[in-house]
Amino acid sequence: AQKVTQAQTEISVVEKEDVTLDCVYETRDTTYYLFWYKQPPSGELVFLIRRNSFDEQNEISGRYSWNFQKSTSSFNFTITASQVVDSAVYFCALSGGLDSNYQLIWGAGTKLIIKP
Amino acid sequence: EAGVAQSPRYKIIEKRQSVAFWCNPISGHATLYWYQQILGQGPKLLIQFQNNGVVDDSQLPKDRFSAERLKGVDSTLKIQPAKLEDSAVYLCASSLDRWGQYTEAFFGQGTRLTVV
Questions:
Q1: Per-residue DSSP letter, B108
Q2: Which of A102, A100, A32 is nearest to B100 (CA)?
Q3: Band (A88; pLDDT cuts 50, 70, 90)
């Protein structure tokens, strides 16, 4: 069965610190996709990144970076020089194939608090 | 490009009443999802449409919840009769591809339902 674990329920850091949000997944599919979404206090889920299982290259987008490691089934998200506007709940999600009935499986989310 | 539109944004009803939510996905998106998000939890898929056909409704409480997607575009989700535990945010999302697993889903702002 597919599963996504975000062990950190809540993280609080001071502005300008770097912070890493962990995501560990389980799947039997050989082809799958991993996603990160941001949910600010306004409530809308905002897409951040999609990564397929055949592409283990790390990705950097401004202050955001993602580390995908198939060997440890992890897809961690790092924010460098955090800002107050980064405060939100961040969700990791997994989309697979037949084993998951093509569903998008969500982690429980990590609430990130950036203090000024 | 217009995003996913949902209405109403907020709704308060008494238990045993009925309520309906409306969603207009991004133009051209084949896949439409309804999610229920209870406070502090990740989204839970209620139903997934591909065009106007149901792909997955395994977690939809069919004794009280119903959904339809007319002409493969707009969708409505109805609850009748509502229970206290239905209090949640109902999120609509859409994605471009056939099965929804290869491209990201775009979310509306959600409808916050409070059942009293």
A1: -
A2: A102
A3: very high
Mean pLDDT of A46-63: 88
Q: B10-13 and B111-115 as β-strands: parallel, antiparallel, unpaired? A: parallel
Q: Answer whether A84 touches B (CB < 8 Å).
A: no
Interface contact flag, A44 B99, Cβ < 8 Å: no
3-state secondary structure A21-90: ECCEEECCCCCCEEEEEEECCCCCCEEEEEEECCCCCCEEECCEEEEEEHHHCEEEEEECCCCHHHCEEE
- Whole-number percent of chain A with pLDDT over 70: 95
CA B62 to chain centre: 14
| Per-residue DSSP letter, B15 | T
Query: Using a CB-CB distance cutoff of 8 angstroms, which residues of chain A are in contact with residue B41?
Result: 108-109
List of chain B residues with pLDDT < 70 = 1, 98-102
Could you give the angle at the alpha carbon of B52 between the alpha carbons of A47 and B11, nearest 5°? Answer: 60
Query: Which among A95, A101, A106 has the least Cβ separation from residue B43?
Result: A106
Contact A97 B91 (CB under 8 A): no
CB contact under 8 A, A95 and B101: yes
Residue B21, Cβ neighbours under 10 Å: how many? 22
Task: Name the residue in chain A with its Cα closest to that of B5.
Answer: A44
What chain A residue is nearest to B107 in terms of C-alpha separation?
A45
C-alpha closest to that of A82 among A15, A12, A11: A15
Nearest to A45 among B56, B91, B101 (CB): B91
Which whole number is the average pLDDT over A23-47? 91
